[in-house]
Design brief:
The protein is α+β, with helices and mostly antiparallel strands. It has 2 domains: 179 residues, Aminopeptidase (3-Layer(aba) Sandwich); 145 residues, 3-Layer(aba) Sandwich (Aminopeptidase), CATH 3.40.630.30. Helix content is 46%, strand content 27%. It is built from 14 helices and 12 strands. Strands 1, 2, 3, 4, 5, 6, 7, 8, 9, 10, 11 and 12 form a 12-stranded mixed beta sheet that branches. The longest helix has 24 residues. It is elongated. The two termini are 43 Å apart.
């Protein structure tokens, strides 16, 4: 495990303290990146740092590989970006990232404001930079009574959900428990992972247990989150047998919904939707600020909200021969991909799309 993410306890404490000062999310903290790097890391890791009078004021974890500098993100990441005390610290640490890429600099999972500012700063430094949408991530503002929130959802769908809950309750004793991992964490994780792997996720190879690296990541992440007091494992049981489960983080009044699953044997009674209803209600009851559904704006999430965060990806090429070569190579690969697509799907739309891309 590289020292940049695990060996320097003093620096990790500084990083955590900075993250607390600026109210950063769990996805910006060293514990998240230690778990992430152990499972998915490649290249040469580095934590870009900015100090003032010896005090840490800016951090950005990256990895270098063959002239490319990239933030530590993949599809398990919700948000990424600098942890900075103020605008100057933010600019200084992003400048370090821009100077660090020989061929290109790639920062993904940026919230809209960060993405705009990274592109603006990169262009100001002479880079060719652009951003592209990565996902629209749904969230529920917890800013009213729960009953009032429900009035703005599909009433027919909610009545159907209540009928399914009634049927499920008649089938046995229905119980929901939410755990912080301070006790029996291995057993609770085993139960949650088992439920999450049931059905289509296992068949598609996207369940936590489908890959050793994913299993390790969520196991390590849960251990760190439990130590921090921010883990939330929700288990819905019918007569003592788990039929739905959530893996989530909860910090500073925000609930981050990471993973979920349900037993397809009870699909018609919708235990996953009932669990979602009850966890959202819990957020309102606790007076949290937001319930973050994470990921993309899939239909089952948009049943619960109309609000989304715009999450973007930024790619920047330095004003150098290497940067220009990398940009041209990237465009060449895109043209080749579009040419192949147009050849496979012959038609006006495909040819027009190719012409537009090639004319940029």
């Amino acid at each position: 495990m590289p020292e940049a993410y695990s060996g320097d306890a003093r620096f990790a404490a500084e990083w955590d303290e900075l993250a607390t000062r600026v109210s950063a999310t769990p996805f910006h903290r060293p514990g998240w990146f230690k778990a992430w790097w152990t499972a998915f890391g490649s290249g040469r890791p580095e934590v870009l740092r900015v100090r003032r009078a010896g005090r840490l004021v800016g951090v950005l974890p990256v990895a270098r590989s063959r002239g490319r500098l990239a933030g530590l993100t993949n599809w398990h990441t919700f948000v990424f970006g600098p942890v900075a005390e103020d605008e100057q610290a933010w600019t200084d640490v992003v400048d370090k990232a821009l100077r660090g890429g020989l061929w290109s600099v790639e920062l993904g999972n940026l919230v809209d404001d960060d993405a705009q500012q990274v592109v603006a700063l990169a262009r100001d430094r002479g880079f060719r930079a652009h951003r592209s949408p990565l996902q629209r991530s749904p969230f529920i503002p917890v800013d009213r009574p729960f009953d009032d929130y429900l009035k703005h959802r599909d009433q027919r769908w909610l009545r159907q959900l209540q009928k399914r809950r009634d049927k499920l309750a008649r089938a046995g004793t229905l119980e929901l428990t939410v755990h912080d991992g301070s006790e029996n964490l291995p057993e609770l994780l085993a139960e949650a992972f088992r439920i999450e792997a049931l059905g289509w996720k296992s068949e598609n190879g996207t369940a936590i247990l489908s890959r050793p690296d994913t299993t390790r990541f969520y196991t390590d992440l849960a251990g760190w989150a439990a130590e921090q007091g921010i883990l939330r494992l929700a288990l819905m049981r019918l007569d003592g047998v788990g039929i739905a489960a959530d893996l989530a983080l909860e910090q500073d009044g925000v609930h981050y919904f990471l993973k979920t699953g349900f037993d397809p044997a009870h699909r018609k009674l919708a235990p996953g939707l009932i669990l979602r209803h009850d966890m959202i209600e819990r957020a309102f009851d606790l007076g949290l600020r937001s319930y973050e559904l994470l990921g993309s704006a899939e239909q089952y999430k948009l049943q619960w909200t109309d609000q989304v965060h715009e999450i973007d990806h930024v790619l920047a090429y330095p004003p150098s021969a290497a940067g220009r070569s990398a940009m041209l190579a990237s465009k060449g690969l895109e043209v080749a991909r579009l040419t192949a697509a147009a050849a496979k799907h012959v038609g006006t739309a495909g040819r027009d799309a190719l012409k537009r891309r090639m004319s940029r």
